[in-house]
# Entry
Amino acid sequence: MSPMSPQCPPVSPQCPQVSPQCPPVSPLSPRLSRFLLLPSRLLLALRALLARGGLLVAAVASGVAFGLWGAALLLRGPRAGRGRRRRPPGQDGDCGEHRYLRLRGSGLRLHYVTRGPPGAPLVLLLHGFPQNWSCWRHLMQEFSPRFRLVALDLRGYGDSEKPPGRASYRLELLLGDIRDVIEALGTPRGTPRCALVGHDWGGVLAWEVASSHPNLVEKLVVMDAPQRGVMADFVLRHPSQLLRSCYIFLFQLPWLPELLLSLDDFQMLRTFLCSSWSGIQDPARRLSERDLDSYLGGLAQPGGLSPPLHYYRNLFRATPIPREPPPPPTLLLWGSRDAFLDPRLGPAHLRWLRPPARLRVLPGASHWLPEERPRLLAELIGQFLEEGGGAGE
# Structure
């Protein structure tokens, strides 16, 4: 249908007045506009209220369940030999050179370990929870010397600074840290870029950086870490993932997670890292006490547990979720026996990503890929970076 009525002659260019037969339609009054939008606003408010209520219910239920576990630990009493701290591995330089970087944006001082020629293409390694840079120590020793590896302690972890308060760990600040690191250390100097490799929380951040700053990321490698949008869609189709992620709801509560995690010399975290159902599946790669101390030593410092948990507490803030897949070529790696993230998340991400993205599911591997399969990871990532030129080329 033509938008012009036959009773309303067109306005002449020489006489742009409005025809008296067709008086201008007055815009809707602000009061009427608000009235018409009221149902939509009510539905959005109801949706937000239900989401907050559901999160609260899940957090309380998880708190009760894990609280019973904590009570059992207290009744059993402390195990012999617990509470002793050894020197963290790698401090003597066997994995690389320890350095510090003062960030341009936040002013924070972050710790990192670097290995490889100073002018080589940068491969930036981002760890997850409850680890630190040292989860990459085996991979760094296996990796090609053609690349410069930088294993970062994220803010609040390891020897990096730990600003107080939940607001200091908002997602936009964490992404700003990584952007500043790439701009300071990336290759080449003029237009810094890197190959970005992330595991667990480091992978979550890597997805976001590659989407928001694709000019800084030449290639992307993600291990057992969901993109927020894909994860939300997957949970709607597979609610069983909520059980695997129940610890995330526990972490939304104040002070209780810190208390429960620290009981019996961090027995809950030791269970996550070392048990037969959630820990490293390869007996030859199981974590030793010295390995565990490299993670738990930093968390055992006064207030050391809260910064990593604040990552989770800010996860449900109203931060925009990137819906478009990241432009850089992407390699996705997933353990087939990941106890925390359904292995079907791997194919779900692959359907979302642009070609020539690829997925490699590692049979029999757990969530903790950097420590369980370092030689295979070094081979797969090295081949991926060499194709079509490495990082920084």
In short: Confidence is low (pLDDT under 50) at residues 2-9, 15-19, 389-393. The longest strand covers residues 109-115. DSSP finds 13 helices and eight strands in the chain. Residues 30-76 form the longest helix (47 residues).
